[in-house]
Design brief:
The chain is an alpha/beta fold. It has 10 helices and 10 strands. Helix 1 crosses helix 5. Bound molecules: 3,4-dihydroxybenzoic acid (DHB) and fe (iii) ion. Fe (iii) ion binds next to loops.
Length: 280
């Protein structure tokens, strides 16, 4: 029987990855952020997931405005980092888990989530930065990864409720996969931020803290937040938070909050991280 060790949600700011890659995590700007990641890394090294399912968004790196799939699952045995304009990040390639990924694809499609299946795709900072946050700079990533990519770039993205339901369906799929692996789920993106336009730089601490407070025990309330409200309250890129609801959907109704970290700013973003475990 496989085991779900927990769910993590974390921001995926590209410059957090660059700070790690370029040895800047001890600098005054970055130290308070990275000090807060120590406990998350410790949780990761204690729970040791064999597989991590990462719910993230592509930022016009692999996909473009020519092709905008709402939900994509990567079924490949290897994923390379995307070239986001300055060469791919020098990080280990990311090993996939085709057997579980195909099981997820089949189960999700039979549960009426019309996933796009990617036999080949690169993965950008939306996926690679959370890996670096949780594992730092290993020679090889210590887990297999299944990428699930959500469109939050081009309107209309899926609703928070749809994302939560996708998480519930992922749980059904995991529970019907016969293996002895330990599985973690990471939802990435957020928290409040806007990268362009008149409101670029907006941060809404009150909204973010309320989101962190409610994700454990009132996720249904969060599923009612409309895209328009995300944008008004948390900035245009704040809508990335719907991916946290996929992660939350995978977990049981009752969860325990294991750890949280909130730091402003990381680049233009309010960087949040939360770790939840099923409350058995
Ligand atoms: C930033 C944050 C993001 O989520 C992203 O995808 C790109 C940039 C930022 O704050 O710089
Ligand atoms: Fe982003």
């Amino acid at each position: 029987m496989n085991e779900i060790v927990g769910g993590i949600a974390t921001s995926h700011v590209p410059s957090i990855g660059a700070a790690i890659d370029n040895g800047k995590t001890g600098q005054p700007y970055w130290k308070p952020l990275f000090d807060g990641y120590k406990k998350a890394r410790q949780w990761m090294s204690e729970t040791k997931p064999d597989v991590v399912i990462i719910i993230y968004n592509d930022h016009a790196s692999e996909f473009s405005l020519e092709l905008i799939p709402t939900f994509v699952i990567g079924v490949s045995d290897m994923f390379m980092p995307s070239d986001e304009g300055y060469g791919p990040r020098e990080i280990p390639n990311i090993e996939g888990h085709p057997e579980l990924a195909w099981h997820l694809a089949e189960s999700l499609i039979l549960q009426e989530f019309d996933m796009t299946i990617a036999n080949e795709m690169t993965v950008d900072h939306g996926l690679s930065v959370p890996l670096s946050i949780m594992y730092d700079q290993p020679k090889e990533w210590p887990c297999k990864v299944i990428p699930i990519c959500v469109n939050v770039i081009q309107y209309p993205p899926p609703t928070g409720l749809r994302c939560y339901k996708l998480g519930r369906a992922i749980r059904v799929a995991i529970d019907t996969f016969d293996s002895n692996e330990k599985i973690a789920v990471i939802g990435t993106g957020g928290m409040s931020h806007q990268l362009q336009g008149e409101r670029a730089g907006i941060i809404n601490r009150e909204f973010d803290i309320s989101f962190l407070d409610r994700i454990s025990n009132q996720p249904e309330e969060l599923t009612k937040i409309h895209h328009h409200d995300y944008i008004m309250q948390a900035g245009s890129e704040g809508v990335e938070l719907v991916m946290w609801l996929v992660m939350r959907g995978v977990l049981e109704k009752k969860v325990r909050e294991i750890y949280r970290h909130y730091h402003v700013p990381a680049s233009n973003t309010a960087a949040g991280l939360i770790i939840l475990e099923d409350d058995e």
